[in-house]
Amino acid sequence: MGTSIYDATPVIDANLVPLGYQQMTSITPAKALASIPVGAKRALLQAETQNVRWRDDGTAPTATVGNIAYAGQNPFLYEGNLAAVQVILATAGAILNVTYYE
Hints:
Elements: E1 18-24, E2 31-32, E3 42-48, E4 52-55, E5 67-69, E6 76-79, E7 86-89, E8 95-101
Antiparallel strand pairs: 1-8, 2-7, 3-6, 3-8, 4-5, 4-7
């Protein structure tokens, strides 16, 4: 049986400087990441409890359209325009944990 990226243990670059954390719970309708710390260039995102969808192309995701972050899976490191990221719950009760890095 093959492995997937979700089977790997996440490793965070030891050179990253953590700048802040937020937990998003009421993410409907779609919302942008809030309280992005000054100097943040990356964000570690992890869906908890239920799945979350996200987009960063200027269009808001919906519960059925957008990239999906599966609940309970390893977090992923987003590197891009953090201000462009919008998220929405794919299933009621979703929680998104976000840690920001320099």
